[in-house]
Amino acid sequence: MVVNGVDESRQSNKVRIAKCILDCKEISKAEIASKLELSMPTVFKNIKELIQLGIVTEGNEYQSTGGRKAKGLSIVDHFMYAAGIDITRNHISYVFIDLKGNLLCQKRIRRTYENTLYYYEALYENFACFLKESGIESNKILGVGISVPGIIDAQNQMIITSHVLKVNNVSLKNLSQLFEYEVYYENDANSAAIAEFADRNRDAVYVSLSDTVGGCVYINQGVYTGEHYRSAEFGHMNLVRNGTKCYCGKKGCADVYCSARVLSCHGNGSLEGFFDLLQAGDESAKKVWEKYLEDLAVLVTDLRMVFDCDIILGGYVGGYLKKYIMDLNKKVVKLDPFDNDTTYLQTCRYEREASAVGIAMRFIEKYFDMLL
Ligand SMILES: [Zn+2]
C-alpha cells in the first residue's frame, strides 16, 4: 500500500500551479505555462486567485530562463504554519515550519516517555508554551504532526508496538483531544524520510540509523507502508547468520550492528562523545568505526540490490556521516559488482529534527492539495 502517492492528473490547475511555485521558489507566469503545459489565460486566472487568497506574491523583476526579465512569483511563507513534535524515549522535540517548509524554530525538552495522562498533558503544555514563545498566531497553525518511534496505525491513532517506548496497543486519542488542531501521527523514520524527500521527484529508500535501525520506502512521492505498516524494518534484516542476539529475539539483525548504540556505548553513552573520540584520533574509537562502516556497507549494498534507487542515510548517525561518506563509499564499492559509482548513496539534509519537520510537512502538503 502506498499512502500519499501523487496522482497529478487529478489535481486542479490551481494546485499544480501553487506546487510549481513552491518547488521553484521563484518563477514567472510564462515559465509556469511552459513547465505545466498550460495556456497563458489559465495561468493568469489561477495566479490572480492565488494572489487574492494571499498564498502567492508577485515580487520584483528577475532574470528568468531565456534571459528575459520577468516578475517573479513566490509563496508567501508566513501565510500559514505547521507544528511538528517528535517523541523519543527520553526527549520531546517541537518545531514550527512555514509554508515553504523552512524550519523556523525548535525546542527540545528532556522528558521520559510514559503512557500516562500526566505525560500527555505535559507534552501539550510544553507545546502551548513553545507556541507562545514563537510569536506565531495560533489561528495560523494548520495542524500538529507527532512522530513516534514504533509501528503506528495513523488512521486509528494507535501505537501498535514500540520497542523504544516499551508499549503495545496504545491509543493516542486522549493526546489528540488536548490539541485544538488536527493531529496526525506517523512513525519517526517515515516522518524523517518525508522531510528528506520533500522536493524530490525520484524514488528512494531512507535508512534511519538511530537507537534502533528503521527506514522508509518512498515510491511515486508516497510512503510504501506494507500491508501491516511494517515495511522497511531494515533493522531486522539478517546481516550476520547466527550473529549477536537482537532485541526482537532473532540473531544477527542489522539493528545489532548498525544502530547508534553500537557507537554511543563507546562514547560514555553519547554519540557526540564517540565522534569526539574518533575526531581526536582515539585508536579504539577508530576500530569501532571501521567495523561499523563495514557492517553498514553490507546493509547498504543489500538495499541497493533490492530497490535499485537512491539510498539516504539519516537518523542520529546520519547527522555525522557527511564527513565520512567517502570511507563508506570505498567499502560499498568493494561489495557491489553491479554499480560503477556510489552517487546513489547520500547523507541526510536534516542533521537534526528531521522527524518533527517531516511530520509537520504533512499539513503543508495537505494544505496545497486542498486548494480549490
Ligand atoms: Zn531484530
Automatic annotation (TrEMBL):
UniProt keyword terms in alphabetical order: Carbohydrate metabolism, Xylose metabolism
Keyword Cytoplasm: no
Domain of life: Bacteria
Biological-process GO terms, alphabetical: D-xylose metabolic process
Family named by the database record: Belongs to the ROK (NagC/XylR) family.
PANTHER family: BIFUNCTIONAL UDP-N-ACETYLGLUCOSAMINE 2-EPIMERASE_N-ACETYLMANNOSAMINE KINASE, ROK (REPRESSOR, ORF, KINASE) FAMILY
Record's function text: Transcriptional repressor of xylose-utilizing enzymes.
Protein name: N-acetylglucosamine repressor
Organism name: Robinsoniella peoriensis
Gene: nagC_5
